[in-house]
Every structure is written in C-alpha cells, then in structure tokens.
Design goal:
Blueprint (H helix, E strand, L loop, with lengths): L6 H25 L4 H14 L4 E2 H8 L3 H13 L3 E5 L7 E5 L1 H8 L5 H9 L4 H17 L30
Antiparallel strand pairs: 1-3, 2-3
Amino acid sequence: MEKEIPIGLQILRAIRKIIRRTSEHSRTVGQSGVTIPQMLCLKALAERSREERVTVAMVANDVQLSTPTVSRILDRLEKAGYLLRERSTSDRRKVFVTLTAEGMDRIDSLPQPLHEQFLGRLNKLDPIERLGLLHAIERIVELMDAVDIDASPVLTLEPEVGARITLTHDDDE
C-alpha cells in the first residue's frame, strides 16, 4: 500500500512545478536570442506603434517595469538593430521608439509569453472557479510571507534588472 503524500507537500510540489515551468519558458525564450523582459518590450512597442508615437515611458507602463529599467532593455534592443530612438524636437526629455524591420521580424519569431497562455486558459474557466483560485493563491502568498513582495503580473524569473545579456543575430543561419 502506497503512503499518502501530506497535503502540504502536494501544495509545495505544485508551486515548484509553476516555478519550473516559468524557468523552462524563460530558457525557451532565451534560446530565441532575447530575454522575457526584452520580448515584452518588443511586443508592447509593436502593439502601441500601430496607434501612436511611442515613448520609453509608455513601454515601461505597458510592461510594468520602471522607466530606467526599460531604457536599459531598449539600449540592448537598439544595439541589436531591433529598434530606433528619436529624441523629440519639442521636448528633449521625450524619446520616441520605433521598431525596425528586423525588430518586426524578431517579434514574429518569438513564442507566446507564458502569462498570455495562462490568461487565455484561465479566462475559459467559470468566474466562480477563477475567484476560488485567486483566493487560494492569495492565501498561499500569505502563508509564504510574501504579501509585501512587489511583483509584476508577468511570469518571468526577473533576471533583467542587473543582468548582462547577449543578444544573438540570425545572420549565421
């Protein structure tokens, strides 16, 4: 007869699976030559640029990261040839960002972000079930003493802030 696994360990195992899936997705995205925060900035820029001229602050707001962090991310993307920056002639503090053709091609080759996959599946659930999941996970956050931890609603391992990142080009293919 098999010994029953205590519920606490089952919950911890489920949490570990979520962490591992997030890590796996980060590696998959990284193999495409960009990090998750870089991918999110590219996608935010693509979505916004259809409507208006896009500033660094607008991208930062969309990806829920600080403007200085997004500015560093955009530096790397600009060096890789994925975007161009142009300082506003009317307000020198504003910098407009535009995707290059290479940036648009890169976006088309990126996988769907994990949080988008999750939200698509979550939204198919009954609203009562979604609310139950929210309450349960909020209680787990409390039990893990993580209530005061600030977190974006994007599933990433968050290495971007001080990380050194190497972007690859597809010129070798």
